[in-house]
Amino acid sequence: MKVTFDEVTMTYGDRDVLDKISFDIPEGKLVSILGPSGCGKSTTLMLISGLAFPTEGDIYFGNEKVTKADAVKRKVGMVFQNYALYPHLTVLENIMFPLKMEKRPKKERMQRAKELAELVQIGDHIDKKPKQLSGGQQQRVAIARALAKEPSILLMDEPLSNLDARLRIEMREEIRRIQQETGVTTVFVTHDQEEALSISDEVMVLNGGSIQQYSDPITLYKRPVNKFVAEFLGTPVINTIDLRADSLLRDRLKLSQNGHSSATALGVRAEDIRQVHTADQALFTGTVSHVARIGKDTTVHVIDGDKECVATDLDIVPEEGETIHLSAHPDTVHYFDGEGQVIRVGAAV
Amino acid sequence: MTEKATLKSTFKALIYMAPMLTIIMTFNIYPIFRSFMMSFYTDYNFFQNTVNSYGLDNFITIFNDAQFWLAIRNTFIFVLGVVPTSIVLSLGIALMLNKIKFLSSFFRSIFFLPFVTSTVAISIVWSWIYHGRFGLMNYFLGQFGIDPVAFITDPDYAMLALVIMSVWRGLGFNIILFLVGLNNIDENYYSAAKIDGAREMGRFFNITVPLLGPTTFLVSVMGVINSFKVFDEVYALFQSRPGPARSALTVVYYIFQKFYEENQFGIAAAAGIVLFLIILVFTLIQMAFNKRFVHY
Amino acid sequence: MEELRETDQPIKLKPLTVKKSAGLSSVKSEWLLKGLAYGLLTIGAVSMLIPFIWMVSTSLKTPAEAVAMPPVWWPSVLRFENYARAFEVAPFGRYFLNSVFITTVSTLGELFTTILAAFAFSKMKFYGKNILFTVLIATMMVPSELLIIPNYLTLSRFGLINTYSAMIVPYLASVFSVFMLKQNFESVPNELYYAAKVDGSSDFNFLWTIMVPLSKSAIVAVTILKIIGSWNAFMWPLIVTNDRMLRPLPVGLQAFTTEAGTHFELLMAASTIVVAPMIVIYLFLQRYIIMGVSKAGIKG
Prior knowledge:
Radius of gyration of chain B: 24 Å
Distance between the termini of chain A: 47 Å
Number of helices of chain A: 10
Strand content of chain B: under 5%
Shape of chain A: elongated
Strand order of the largest sheet of chain A: 6-7-8-3-9-10
Oligomer: heterotrimer
Largest interface: B-C, 109 and 102 residues
Order of helices and strands of chain A: EEEHEEHEHHHEHEHEEHHEHEEEEEEE
Number of strands of chain B: 2
Structural class of chain B: mainly alpha
CATH architecture of the largest domain in chain B: Orthogonal Bundle
CATH superfamily of the largest domain in chain A: P-loop containing nucleotide triphosphate hydrolases
Structural class of chain A: alpha+beta
CATH superfamily of the largest domain in chain B: MetI-like
Strand content of chain A: 25-35%
CATH topology of the largest domain in chain B: MetI-like fold
CATH class of the largest domain in chain A: Alpha Beta
CATH class of the largest domain in chain B: Mainly Alpha
Radius of gyration of chain A: 24 Å
């Protein structure tokens, strides 16, 4: 079901955790809410679930206003960070619990729970207690339980953060698979950008209680709307070059001719950095301080005084100590104004 | 996590608490104030529930009553007899239980047994053991060449009889508390002390004793508070009398007599207030101590 | 529940094992100390048990054996008819049923009221929560002996003196139990509460299907302590009953001391009847009793 937030504000004490946010979550999609801790992403999830209520503004499920409806009425499914499985119930009983609450006939409960156990591939363990399962298995049970009552929306609160790295990737793909098989509208909260980018149809980046950008993962990465999004996404962090003090560079980039006169900084991703021959073609000139080789990846760190530039996809790997000149294709350069907003993407040198 | 108290949630919580609050308000909170009021009733008609005058007369009466002072004196003697003895014995037993592995919980169960049994029944058993002619106690004393003692009927021995039985009865409870205290001492302290060269005795005096201080204090204060309230034991041990020649008249027994046998409600309430104040002093000492020394 | 808390637990270091540096003498003294401990504990345990053994043994003797000097440790013939005789001399059957009835009703009632209240205190948000809780805790400092007089008057206003209600109603709730259960309910993670809400469970349903089963051991501990307290209660039932047929066991037993006269074997049989049920409960459930007592003691 489609979820709509209309100018929703959430206040604790005198602090605005969410400040007049409005958005739609389209039906049948998997949407991630991404942001650093304290950005309001968990609060947003709680507001969707009906475990918390907004201070101002309205929430709609489809066309129905649910602002004041509590969790029991909203019929959402939720997967918690620590799974919150009922420790005294078996796997099957855990999955059946929401159906029991709906007073469905016992036979139906049983059958539905078994189907779900198969869907999440936990069918062999249905008589075990949660304690006897591994983290990944518990996660699967939690998902099955959340799906049991055919929820209008499936909510996941950092569901992968308690798993180890390898399992996390496996479960990520599982969640994607299950979501696509069931077609349930899913909201996935995470602080891990890689997780968000890999799993979602749409990503909403939150910071300081307001939406920074809400778009598909590729746009988000390639066309960030501001410096926060540009810096929050991608590893290594996007290179930023301060333009305020460097009038030579400003002239060469013809900022005023290109409508970039208000630019105070530019950003280029490490993989877009190319080596050029001379300093007057370059955005950055410096000494190679460190070359890190991890498996197939080679990361080159170049410094100029206290400024640093990182490149990952250079054609020829330079030696440490060498002085090199770096630039990038104009399409890959992002210009930021004084407020950190991107002015316009794609300008010629 | 995210909810705040609202009128609605407060109302709901009140519904959940209502049964408990009704009982507690009626039988625990209201009577506290009522007792204070009653201690100032100097002319009260029970059948019409009317109070004709208030005053300090009840307090003046009990403070001029030799019986009351006797009750206070006996209660203090009882406390001084029971608490230190019980502490020393239960601490020693707890340390030994802590030292051994095999049969440790078996012994613990036996020591704790009297705690679950009826005070009245146990006191009756003891009064049989203390019997002047046929009692087991006198038989044992006889084995050591001691003449029979009339524990129950001789005013000089009645208090001793009461103290011995009370120590016996309360031992298990104190042992449990000491065992909890001993358990809370981190093994690493002992390991460290061993490395630092402390022998068994050194470890006992330098680690166990100081770290068990708070527990000992707690056990003492609780012992004092509970001992101040002694009644069932006296009533059952001495066949519904406060001991021979009132030698075991305690404060609660005094209150019971004034209230139940003499219908002197105001005087009984005043004595109750005095008991409350004595216990309050110890409670406050304990709370102050907890705040300062015990960090959970 | 453990797996949820696992991460909060500090890593517990295994105590270092240190080689005994001192030679044989240390090992020897260690054995000596242990031997001494076992010896003293055995003496102590026997002293603890003697009154019980003596009670049971006397209860099975003939009147002559009971007062024999030197004492007869164990009767030659076990006279179980002493028990039957005790039931004849005084209505112990009735006393027993009274005790069972009073204990059952007040325990069930207290569980109901305190579980509900403890839930409100542990998981619900409401105005004045801290103040109310402090007031309740403060009432625990007041000796119950102070409450006897006004409670007697209150009950007599309601015309309840000399009824079962007089022995039950004032004990249908306990601050101590609320406190114990609240502590335990708080340790149930909030996520479970939220998960149940999302799963469509009402608060009331969550309390009985999730919270209560998860707090089983604390509830059992509170229940047993209540049963013991209720079964052994003496002063209050003594005060509020005149009718012999309403008496619970301890009051009946106390009255029996005059009725039995010098028949110590009957008196001891009656005492055994009073004591035995609690000893049976203790033997089976002592783990919970000791847990309850140690928690209660430490929190003061």
